[in-house]
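=== RUN LOG ===
request id: a7f3
mode: sequence -> structure
chains: 1
length: 179
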Amino acid sequence: MSLDDLKEKLPDYAKDLKLNLSTLVQEEILTTQQLWGTFLATALAGRNKQVIAVIAAEAQEHLSSEALEAAKAAAAIMAMNNVYYKFTGMIGKDEYRTMPAKLRMNVIGKPGVDKADFELWSMAVSAVNGCKYCMLSHEKQLKDHGLSTEQIQTSVRIAAVVQAVSAILDGVEALSRDL
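=== RESULT ===
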């Protein structure tokens, strides 16, 4: 299945998602690695099997094996960190925020790709997972690495569209089972 096939699976009421997906895959403000790593990491975060399969196949055409693994690692580590750090921030007690996390996060220090790219993918996954505290941290890191506001916004636009496509396809599948 291709990206075009995936877009065809979207219902007419999701026409804007089709258009946004078409636009974002041609976005030029990000490098090819940044773009496809963001697509892959956010597809994994979105958890829809069809979206993951299509985007993973497309990403293989554009990413090195190291970048493929790093994008997957960004999705994995943020799945954990977004839960933990969302908790420490939302609970509103300094004692939790000052305690060591005691969670292994080695991949953040040695992601196997440019640190800025890994941070960008982590930012996008954190947006999907709704962790304000992780997004604030990653945005600071991205700015320190010289990424522009527009580049950061583009990664989150990709996250928003990939998440929406995943959600709608899950909904379409659920509706077809119930009918």
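=== NOTES ===
The chain has a mean pLDDT of 96.
The radius of gyration is 17 Å.
=== END ===
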